[in-house]
Amino acid sequence: MNINATLFVQALSFAALIWFTVKFVWPMITTAMDERARRISDGLAAAEAGRQSLERSAKEVNVAINDARSRAAEIVAQAEKRGAQLVEEAKAAGRAEADRERAAAKAEIEQEIARAREELRAQVASLVVSGAEKILRREVDSRAHADMLDAIKQQL
Predict the structure, then answer these.
(1) Which of 134-151 are b and which e, b meaning 16 or more Cβ less than 10 Å from the residue's Cβ?
(2) Number of domains in the chain
């Protein structure tokens, strides 16, 4: 075998392999590499957009948290104000109830006093009638009359 012929056939087969690779294999590889580069760049762009979106979301969350905190503080202040108002209303209601009960007690005391006066008048009247009856049954004597009035005064 001739070394020149072998070398020539090997060169020719190598050239055929290069031609086949350039014609059929290389376009598929470059297409796949271009597609992969495009997906990588799209992924990087999406990651950057996601990072920016995350930053915007974090800012929005901070704003929402601050709004919620201020709203919560406002609600707490309103609740404290309402609580103080309810305490004052309860105090006022208690005072009004105490005044009503005091007025009712005074009215009841006045009624008791009036009833006691009426009873006292009735007793005084019966004592006067009984004293007058006793005076009229006895003979009219100024000394006896004075003693009888003193006795009636003692009973009153």
Answers:
(1) ebeeeeeeeeeeeebeee
(2) 1
